[in-house]
Design a protein that fits this description.
The protein is mainly alpha-helical. The chain is built from 14 helices and 6 strands. Strands 1-2 form a two-stranded antiparallel sheet. A hairpin with a 7-residue loop joins β3 and β4.
Amino acid sequence: MSTIGDNNDQRGGDSEKITSNKEECTSCEQNEVNNITEDIDSMSVSDMSTCANCGKEGNSDDMNICNRCKEVKYCNATCKKKHRSKHKKKCDRRVAEQHDEQLFKEIEPDECPICMLPMPLDASDSLIGSCCGKRICNGCRFAMFMSEEKDLCAFCRTPPPIRDEEIIKRLKEIMNKGNGDGFFQLAGYYARGIMGLPQDWVKSNELLLKAGELGCTEAYCNLGNSYRNASGVERDVKKAIYYWELAAMGGHVDARYNLGLEELKKGNIHRAFKHFIIGARAGYKDSLDIIKEGFMQGDVTKDEYASTLRAYQKRQNEIKSDERNQAKAAYSHIDALTQGR
């Protein structure tokens, strides 16, 4: 038999259930409202664009886009064609701006895959392994030799090839895997006519182009040099600059230095020193020397020179290591003995 108190407790429980159900219903309704709001928000204005010619709005993904600047959209190809003459000057200006944004961007240097230090700027201070296709700094190569007391690849520990034919075979194997450095190495052999290969600048340039397309910035720099020096191709300074720019965009300091010199010849002092400052900040001494001259002549401000010098010294410290210093001394001694013979 229930008491009044029990009945009150029971009614209180029912009331709590009713309140709970109302809260759940309210919560469900709120969730539905939130979902609808999110759906509306997801249909953002950024998904809609206006045709630059007729002003008609449309879905951005479905509209035609300017093939050059990539920033103007049209509702169809007809509007795109009609607007071309009006858009040309603005498009040319924006394309030039985009090009310079990419050209004058500082790029972090590649690292040795073993010591993880920035690669030395002098190509002779590192070596591409024909076995694994990895570029290894001489410091790691020297440390490997001293620890194992034999000449092995510091990355994959493969013994060095004995015959020229074996080197070429290995290079072709890594080239088949899309290794740009392999194409670059073989291009160098054709350029010098070594490793049992004939001297063939045309073949060398073909390999350099492929190596550059696969990401080897040094190959683009050398291809630019070929066009400047008429090595296997007709002399073409414009093409030389084109390939130097591709190399510089990838962080190649020699190519950027060449671009700076070309800008100086044209009297484009500001653009020239932008190249030299970026090169010097990357640790390139020849660029730093020109920055110093520019400072003395008033083409570079005191603050620009000071900040560039600090960045240069910082990068030089990052590149150095005891192993690399030991390797440079040892290999220089070997070269001296070889030349003495």
